[in-house]
Design brief:
The complex is a heterodimer of chains A (577) and B (282).
Chain A: H1 2-15, E1 19-25, H2 43-51, E2 53-59, H3 64-73, H4 110-116, E3 120-126, E4 145-149, E5 172-173, E6 176-177, H5 186-200, E7 208-213, H6 225-229, H7 239-253, H8 276-309, E8 316-322, H9 333-343, H10 362-369, H11 382-385, E9 389-392, E10 403-410, H12 414-421, E11 430-431, E12 434-435, H13 445-448, E13 461-466, E14 469-474, E15 477-481, E16 491-495, H14 511-528, H15 539-576
Chain B: H1 2-30, E1 47-52, E2 57-59, E3 66-68, H2 73-85, E4 89-94, H3 114-120, H4 123-130, E5 133-134, E6 145-148, H5 154-157, H6 162-174, E7 178-182, E8 205-206, H7 211-217, H8 226-232, E9 236-237, E10 251-253, E11 259-262, H9 268-280
Parallel strand pairs in B: 1-4, 1-6, 4-5, 6-7, 7-11, 8-9
Antiparallel strand pairs in B: 2-3, 10-11
Helix pairs in contact in B: 2-3, 2-9
Classes of the chains: A alpha/beta (577), B alpha/beta (282).
Family (chain B): Belongs to the peptidase C56 family. HSP31-like subfamily.
InterPro entries (chain B): Class_I_gatase-like, DJ-1/PfpI, Prot/Nucl_acid_deglycase
Domain DJ-1/PfpI (chain B): 71-276
């Protein structure tokens, strides 16, 4: 009897499919978690890392929507229709099917596949893959329950917009407009919703897939005062000691080689040249950032505790990662005044991070958040692309728990990995009788369930392009290209295994390898419909132009009313005279 | 009187502007960089090598100073993009490796091609040009097409390179590569030897830039002239001529269909496409 029961239990366990929880942070840097070398307190995520497997060379697109497209589909961002965020497309690009800013219809999401395979599918957070056409909303892309914010970002305390591009930040619940509660704070709210969604169908015993894309730590950086307070003294010496600290911690953990050099960005200011007031202000805004990460971790902890309380924790595969590296942009000059006035924010020191405030961290601290890597969000340097990836839960082999995998992995790989975990076959470009874009990501399961050391061979390539910034990785090497006033607009070759900081260009020493990778990139361009950007392309300026264009009806209406008023006044004066 | 002068000045300005705007079209109609309207083939998975000069100065013998020159851009860009758009992987090599000098006159607005425009925006190809492969380190037998670009710099190094001559021979005997070039690029063929130690191109029909064009361009100071050198090597030299040979073009496929040569900068399109057509038919 006892033996029979045991056998039955084993059989049941073998047949039971795991729940899947994908937690996506926004703009979190490579060393922003304690488990990756940070001074920020992230005990819940560190526990996940200790029980699971960390990846040292996992890469994403260096921008949010393309990463989300690849994560949701396993399809290259261009072929998925999201070569860049919709807000940044040029008129010429907008005509290409690969440059729509939203998932194309012939892309099938993992949510659709998991739902069709018997999973409950839930989503709470930032979507950024299209919403104007209701068919684009996550409720119509495979998720049976959603609480969704469609934009690139928004206020973390209210539905105020964070860019003049949007009138206010929209929210949708299950595809319909949703009013935020008065006591809204984004990380807390999203976790509450995720718990409510899982709780709603607990009784039927079906597994769930929860996709939880946080708004933290995307600008505006905002955190409750009690979190910011913890870090007020942490950054008083500036970014240089933080960079060094994180580099040392990353080396000590084996995330980067012991002799890896750190790239010094020409956008990093000299702390000593700042005034005392400037130093104090910069220290606080980074404290807000740290507080925001900390708060996210605390609320993730609530979700994990909930899973333990309902007995599902041990049967849940948990994936934590970020969509790209840290945000370097800050709001200065006339743009700042416009933002604060028009959108009703303050950036005063005293309330920075709290409700009504708008904080950024700037390029110097963004570089610290990506330490010891170079570059950050929007750039194809490692700091923009290499981010934490933690996989935890029953899928991870016991011998690998708490370890670090040094295998190359890419965001496209998460979709085939999760589908394989759920027992869903690769659709290979045909789904329920129709042609869909084939997944080109690779399952990472050999790295997680066994002790394989690679799923990419020395001849395999991973390539990427956004807004003209581009990269290609092949074996231990990478070529990279960054445009703009702070970059040289040229391709460079790096031995990325030895030199993750991309400090020593090798194209002169190894021209044959350089030529080979450049040709591989040309193949990528051809196969993925990559369109060049104009020579004078500037992503922020393009976003602004698109914003003005989108707001044109309002501007025209306002101008019309103004003219009508002036005309009426003149007529009235003439009649009276 | 002042009105008449103003009208005359305005008229002259209009004429000058119109001429400037029409100049590219006029030169094009006269024969510069003619459009290719023939057949095209795709060669996915195949490889092409474009070879250029490393010499960047139009200097008299014994001197080192002179006007800037190098590869004539269209003689590199036209075949490069023709091969690339045909699905080929394309490498760029030069006699010395490293940065290839590009003749700045190549990019004069009235002269430059669509491919030149494309190149000027193409950081990938610019990177290959800046870090070109050194021919000594290239295995020519790994390529299906080997194309030698001209430009006046080639008059100083392609025809003097023992390494290039040796590697052309290797490509001819040890692979099925289609070999050729345009303009001064064909000088890269003159040192290649057959297995009996005789010149490989002897007896073959070939073309390259005419002595007349060189004279008309005023670059007789250059040390090697393709028409002269091809004849010396025993090749059966052919050419077309025009009131100015810069507007002529001619392409020759040798009887064995292993060598394709083009007369000048105008011949790049047809030469490249002919090479691809031959490479496509084993």
């Amino acid at each position: 009897m006892s033996e029979s029961t045991s056998e039955s239990a084993t059989s049941t366990d073998a047949a039971k499919r795991p729940n899947i929880l994908v937690i996506l942070a926004d703009d979190l840097g490579y060393t922003d978690l304690g488990a990756y070398g940070s001074e920020i307190s992230t005990p819940n995520l560190d526990d996940l890392a200790q029980q699971g497997l960390r990846f040292s060379k996992y890469r994403t697109a260096p921008s949010c929507a393309p990463t989300r497209a690849m994560l949701m589909s396993g399809v290259d961002s261009h072929r998925a229709g999201v070569a860049n965020i919709a807000e940044a497309l040029t008129p010429a690009q907008s005509h290409s099917p690969f440059y729509q800013g939203h998932l194309r219809k012939d892309v099938v999401t993992i949510a659709t596949q998991l739902r069709d395979a018997g999973y409950h599918t839930y989503m709470a957070g930032k979507w950024h893959l299209g919403y104007k056409d209701p068919a684009l909303r996550p409720i119509n892309r495979g998720f049976e329950q959603t609480v969704m914010m469609p934009y690139s970002g928004g206020d973390n305390w209210s539905n105020k917009s964070y860019l003049p591009l949007y009138e206010k930040t929209l929210w949708f619940e299950n595809g319909e407009p949703y009013e935020l509660p008065e006591d809204f704070y984004s990380s807390e709210f999203l976790v509450d919703k995720a718990i409510a969604q899982i709780d709603s169908n607990r009784a039927d015993g079906k597994p769930f897939f929860t996709y939880l894309p946080f708004m933290a730590v995307h600008m505006p950086m905002q955190a409750p005062r009690k979190y910011t307070q913890k870090y007020l003294e942490t950054y008083r010496q500036g970014w240089d000691p933080i960079r060094s600290q994180r580099q040392q911690a990353a080396k000590a953990m084996g995330l980067v080689p012991a002799d890896a050099a750190m790239k010094h960005m020409n956008t990093t200011a000299e702390w000593a040249t700042l005034s005392e007031e400037e130093q104090r202000y910069n220290a606080k805004r980074m404290a807000v950032y740290a507080g925001m990460v900390d708060a996210m971790d605390v609320h993730i902890g609530r979700l994990l505790q909930y899973l333990k309380d309902i007995g599902e924790y041990d049967n849940t595969v948990i994936v934590f990662t970020s969509d790209n590296g840290p945000e370097p942009n800050e709001i200065t000059g006339p743009q700042r005044l416009l933002m604060l006035k028009l959108l009703d924010y303050t950036d005063d020191y005293e309330t920075l991070g709290e409700k009504g405030s708008f904080a950024t961290i700037g390029p110097s601290f963004a570089s610290a958040a990506a330490a010891p890597l170079g570059h950050y969000k929007f750039h194809s340097g490692e700091g923009g692309m290499r981010v934490p990836l933690v996989v935890s839960g029953p899928a991870v082999a016991d011998v690998l728990r708490g370890q670090i995998s040094h295998a190359t992995a890419y965001v496209k790989d998460l979709a085939p990995t999760l589908l394989e975990l759920a027992g869903v076959a690769d659709h290979r470009g045909q789904y329920r009788g129709r042609a869909v874009e084939p997944m080109t990501g690779r399952s990472l399961l050999p790295l997680i369930e066994q002790s394989a050391t690679a799923v990419y061979g020395p001849e395999d390539t991973i390539a990427y392009e956004i807004g003209g910034n581009a990269a290609l990785i092949k074996g231990d090497y990478k070529i990279t290209f960054n445009r703009g006033p702070n970059n040289d607009g040229q391709w460079h070759l790096y031995h990325i295994e030895r030199d993750p900081g991309e400090t020593t260009p090798l194209e002169q020493q190894e021209p044959a390898r350089f030529a080979e990778l450049l040709s591989d990139y040309e193949t990528y361009v051809r196969d993925n419909g990559v369109l060049p950007v104009p020579p004078d392309y500037n992503q922020r300026r393009q976003v602004t132009r698109n914003a003005v264009k989108q707001r044109l009806p309002q501007i025209a209406l306002f101008a019309g009313l103004l003219l009508a008023g002036v005309a009426a006044l003149l007529l009235w004066r003439r009649r009276r005279g | 009187m002042r009105n008449k002068l103003l009208i005359a000045a305005a008229g002259l300005t209009v004429v000058a502007v119109a001429f400037a705007l029409l100049l590219p079209t006029l030169l094009h109609k006269a024969g510069l960089h003619p459009e290719y309207t023939g057949d095209t083939v795709a060669l996915p998975g195949k490889r092409a090598l474009v070879i250029t000069t490393s010499h960047g100065t139009l200097n008299a013998p014994g001197e080192t100073d002179g006007k800037a020159t190098g590869v004539f851009a269209s003689e590199m860009t036209v075949p490069y993009y023709t091969f690339l758009d045909g699905g080929m992987q394309v490498d760029i090599a030069s006699i010395q490796g490293g940065e290839i000098p590009v003749d700045p006159e190549s990019f004069f607005y009235a002269v430059r091609t669509a491919e030149d425009e494309r190149y000027l925006q193409d950081a990938v190809v610019q990177a290959k040009v800046k870090n070109s492969l050194r021919i000594d380190e290239v295995d020519f037998t790994r390529y299906d097409i080997i194309f030698m670009a001209g430009g006046w710099g080639a008059a100083y190094d392609l025809g003097y390179s023992d390494a290039l001559g040796r590697k052309v021979s290797e490509a001819y005997y040890d692979s099925s590569a289609v070999i050729g070039g345009v303009c001064h690029g064909v000088l890269g063929l003159i040192k290649a030897e057959d297995k009996d130690g005789k010149l490989l191109i002897a007896g073959r029909r070939m073309t390259g830039v005419s002595d007349k064009q060189i004279k008309e361009l005023g670059i007789e100071v250059t040390p090697q002239h393709p028409e002269t050198e091809l004849r010396k090597a025993g090749a059966e030299y052919e050419k077309q001529t025009a009131f100015r040979d810069i507007f002529a073009t001619h392409v020759v496929v040798d009887d064995e269909r292993r060598f394709v040569t083009g007369q000048n900068q105008n011949s790049g399109y047809e030469t490249a496409h002919q090479m691809m057509a031959i490479a496509a038919k084993p």
